[in-house]
Structures are given as C-alpha cells and as structure tokens.
Fold this sequence. Notes:
Layout: E1 14-17, H1 29-40, E2 57-68, E3 76-87, E4 91-103, E5 110-121, E6 126-135, E7 138-149, E8 155-161, E9 165-169, H2 176-189, E10 193-198, E11 208-217, H3 220-227, E12 242-251, E13 262-269, E14 274-280, E15 284-295
Antiparallel strand pairs: 2-3, 2-15, 3-4, 4-5, 5-6, 6-7, 7-8, 8-9, 10-11, 11-12, 12-13, 13-14, 14-15
Amino acid sequence: MRHISLPKLAGFAALIAGACLVAVPVVAAGHAASKPAEAAAAVASVDAYPDVTVALHKALYDFKMVSVQAGAGVTGIDGRMYYEQDDNCDAWTTEHRFRVEYQYPERRPVENTSHYVAFESKDLSQFYFSSEREEDGATTEQLRGSVEKGPDGKAIAEYTRPGNLSYPLPKGYMLPTQQTNEVIRHARKGDRFFDAIMFDGTDADGPVEVNTWIGKKVTPEEIKALIGNNKNIDASLLNTDAWHVRMAVFPLKDKDSMASSYEMDMILHDNGVVSWSLVDYKSFKVEQKLLALQRLPPKKCS
Length: 302
C-alpha cells in the first residue's frame, strides 16, 4: 500500500500533503540533514512562487480508521503524525513523523513508525529526500535520494539507497511544496480541476499522477466546528481562505491501471495548512484531525 504524505496533500503533500499513513518514519537524520545543508549554499535565492506565502508551522494530527469493509484485512488503525513546514531562505524544508498501530482480526497489532525529511530549493532546481520506516522497532525500509533538473526541464529521481533505482521525470513534473503552491494558485483563480505528475520520495514507487478537484470555499463556521476551543491550535493560521479539495492518486509504475491507489478529501488553506483530511483506500477510510498547530518563527534572510 502506498504511504500517504501531507505534502501529497499538496506538500500537501502534499502532499502533504502529504498524507499520512500506512507504514511510517524515523530517519537517519544526521545523513539527511547534511545533504540539504550542502545544497543550500549552491542554490540561488530565487523563489518560483513569490505570490504564494506558505505558512511556516508545525502541527500534530490524530488519525484513525472510521469505516471498513468486510475482507479489508485490518480491523483498526490508530496513530499520530507530526508535520513541520519550514524555510531556510533558499529552500522549503519538510519533515513528518508517524506512529501508526494496525489491528488485525487474527493476529497481534503491529506498530509502524516513519520519519521523512525533504529539502526543496525555491528555484525548483534541486530536491533531496530521506525516509526510514520501522515495524515494531525493526527497520524495514531506508530511502535516500535526490532530483536535479536538466536544462530541458526533464529530470531524473536518483535513489542512493537503495542503489540502482531511478525514475525519469517528465517536463512539467512537480515537487511537493511546488504542487501545494500550484493548487492554491488554481483555487484562487476559481479553477475546478488541476492535474500534475508529482514526485516526493516518500516511497520506492516513484512519481504519481495527482488529479485534483477544487470545491467550494470553507466557511468560518466549518473551521470553528473543527477546532472548537482547542487552545493548542493557533487559530490565526486558519483565519484564511480555505477550500474543500479532493485528490485522486494514480501510480505511474502501473500505467495500465485505471484505478487510483487512494483518494482523499481535505480542507486546504491559502497558506498551505491542512486542517482536516479523510483518506479513502476503497476498503477502509482514515480520518485525520488537527490536535495542535503552532507558527514557526520567520527566518532572517539576507
């Protein structure tokens, strides 16, 4: 099953968002952090999206399975996700950590954890990612890699771990925060549909096609009902335009399949914050609710 990320949520993200579930991360953070630091010095300070302001924030989400069909193979899913969207002046940085417990009908529960870190230069020329997953404390997957765009707009996603794995990315492909920004741009214009090929490095399956439908604006009353009187949520981050958005994710690895891997409904804010989502895996659905939301301090950039 493909792992979901807030940023597929449009960083969301993505996708977030992108997205949040199934087996999840604890990264070899030292290795992941060194690569972005090296890259930052070589990236020109050019923002490809000066008209979109992504809120620098950290958030905690609770998610659980809210419906399941007979034969799904799982009886319950519960977990939490920590998500952080930051900025180092020349690049967007994204981090998310998951802890998920899966309950099964005839076996003991299994706990998965995961940690994902990404560095995405604002001029869209470079992208570095690192992800690690564990099951009941044992490492099950480690991913490292990068994307560098060629002069013709095409690129190659190269995995250094595992080795000998790469995917060609077509001209016009998008990275996670870039996709978030594009969806926001389309929503502001009143567009209803937006399709893109997106790569985020959250798994070894390569790029996906994301079909996005942008619905009506969310009312302040709807947001109030979501957050209630939760003092751990900075409501100023949600006091923005927001839209009901639905995404369908199709794996490019399986080009012959007409079925999406999963679909998700979400509330996406004008600043890139996702305040709620519902992920539909066909045989079961998982709801993600916001528990805490805090603004990160702005960076002092020369």
